[in-house]
Write a structure and sequence with these properties.
Layout: H1 3-39, H2 41-53, H3 57-68, H4 73-85, H5 93-105, H6 109-121, H7 129-141, H8 145-154, H9 163-172, H10 176-188, H11 192-204, H12 212-224, H13 228-240, H14 248-260, H15 264-272
Helix pairs in contact: 1-2, 2-3, 2-15, 3-4, 4-5, 5-6, 6-7, 6-8, 6-9, 7-8, 9-10, 10-11, 11-12, 12-13, 13-14, 14-15
Protein name: Sel1 repeat family protein
Keywords: Signal
């Protein structure tokens, strides 16, 4: 073998070794990430939510799938959101229903409420009053006022719907443009929950073009008005610099406010950081 051929062969060996080392270190890094998420699910959910805000759905899904393998309710619920809205994957209501059902079984009240709403609306999933009542009751036991109100409405089929209930059922039927118009009317009148619903829509591009700064603005309005979901969402934005400039002190303050209201993810995040609200 001449010198040129020997050099070429040696270079190929070096490239092969380099590729194998890169793959090995990449696998180790991935295993390390998985270990970190499993060891600290609250911070894993933080990371995934930040990636979700930036429309990095594959990255968010990777974290949530890891946590879902050990039955994390928040991760299962969020995988349902991705499947229902077709974010980073084909829209699939059967897949969404499966994730929501698993999350509800893990006692995730957001999944319980979502299932109750979907079964009540009867458009995206077949109408099932019995299942709607079951899941709304479970969510209501967590103190979820939206579930309590919808459950009351389910027991009085002839009672008129409130504007918020109309918006929720339109959302649960996939009629997002009409739902957002009602949420906007309520938000303009000072309804913090409707404001939070609008913020989520701008965050994920549900019925409107995705607009993270607008989502952050609306989350802040709702957070200032005392909405725990908005306070948690704003805390994540401030912690990660997604939608708002990074501000750890402000993030901790909003997280504390959400935790004091009993927001499960906020409380879990505080515990993971060694800070427990009294």
């Amino acid at each position: 073998m001449n010198t040129a051929m020997a050099c070429a062969a040696w270079q190929r060996r070096l490239l092969a070794v380099g590729l194998l080392l890169a793959l090995a270190f990449g696998a180790q890094a991935q295993d390390s990430n998985r270990s970190d998420w499993l060891r600290n699910p609250a911070m894993g959910n933080y990371k995934a939510y930040a990636e979700f805000k930036m429309a990095h759905y594959d990255a968010a899904r990777e974290v949530w799938q890891t946590l879902a393998e050990v039955g994390n309710g928040d991760a299962l619920f969020n995988l349902g959101i991705l499947a229902e809205d077709g974010l980073g994957e084909p829209r699939n209501m059967a897949r969404a229903e499966s994730f929501y059902t698993s999350a509800a079984a893990a006692d995730n009240f957001k999944a319980q409420y979502r299932l109750g709403l979907l079964y009540f609306a009867g458009t995206l999933l077949p109408r099932n009053t019995e299942k709607a009542r079951l899941y709304l009751t479970r969510a209501a036991t967590h103190g979820d006022r939206d579930a309590q109100d919808m459950l009351s409405r389910l027991g009085q089929p002839d009672a008129p719907l409130t504007t918020f209930q109309q918006a929720e059922l339109l959302s649960g039927s996939g009629q997002l443009t009409q739902a957002l118009a009602l949420y906007r009317t309520l938000a303009d009148a000072g309804d913090a929950t409707a404001q939070t619903r609008l913020a989520w829509a701008y965050e994920a591009g549900r019925g409107v073009a995705a607009d993270l700064p607008e989502a952050a603005r609306r989350f802040e309005i709702a957070a200032q008005a005392g909405n725990a979901e908005a306070q948690y969402a704003l805390a994540v934005m401030l912690r990660t610099g997604r939608g708002r400039a990074e501000d750890r002190a402000a993030s901790a303050a909003w997280l504390d406010k959400a935790a004091r209201q009993g927001h499960p993810a906020a409380q879990a995040a505080q515990v993971s950081e060694g800070r427990v609200t009294q």
